[in-house]
Amino acid sequence: MYAANQTSVSASIPRAMQHSAAPAVSLIGAQQNELLRALSREELLDLFVHLDLVPLDAGKRLFDTGDLTEYAYFPTNAIVSLQYVTEDGGAAEVAVVGREGVVGVSMYESERANCCAVVQSAGYGYRIKASVLRQAFFSGGALAQQLMRHTSALFAQLAQTVAGVRHGSIEQRLCRWLLERLDRSLSNELKVTQEMIANMLGVRRESITCCAGKLQEEGLIEYRRGTVTIIDRHAMERRAGGCYSPA
Question: Which residues form the Cyclic nucleotide-binding domain (predicted)?
Answer without folding.
Answer: 35-104
